Amino acid sequence: MNARTLLLGAALTVISPALATTAPTLTLAQQAQRAEVIVRATLGTPAEIKDGEVTYLAYPLTVTETIAGDAAKLPQQDGKPALFVLKGVDGLPDLRAGLEVMALLYASRLDSPVVGFNQGLYPVTAGKVAAGDITDPTKLREALLGARGGK
Fold first, then answer.
1. What is the pTM assigned to this prediction?
2. Which of 13, 53, 115, 117 has the fewest CB neighbours in a 10 Å radius?
3. Domain positions in the chain
4. CA pseudo-torsion sign 131, 137, 141, 142
5. How many CA within 13 A on the CB side of residue 41?
6. Angle at the Cα of 62 (from 131 to 43), degrees rounded to 5?
7. Which fold has domain 24-147?
8. For residues 111 and 113, what is the distance between their CA atoms, to the nearest angstrom?
9. Residue 86: how many other CB atoms lie within 10 Å
């Protein structure tokens, strides 16, 4: 094995962890297609949940509308669907109790269950969607369902 091969191997080892935490930018249609559950909900006060050596922040969700999927398949906290995020993960959106969101989610516990590593979280403020090109929640709902073929 020559020095060039060793250097390349070392470089890949250093680069790989950074690549693992970088998610490609997804279109709204791609986010909708990847989501297992899409809800409009309000975040409750988070609780710290230990799972072995891992600590999650669990935000209970008051679901006002299930747009797609089954909200009951989301992780549960005190008998309610909840948004579980790994405590200390960089790049999370600003999550706080009382925040209303349209959330495109994976159904299992992950570092972040939000599709596209946090791209699929759309805050709703004063009746308007605060992120993305579509600011009307009804039109966003229609676009999400359209991207999923009405499912």
1. 0.81
2. 53
3. 24-147
4. negative
5. 26
6. 50
7. OB fold (Dihydrolipoamide Acetyltransferase, E2P) (2.40.50)
8. 7
9. 16
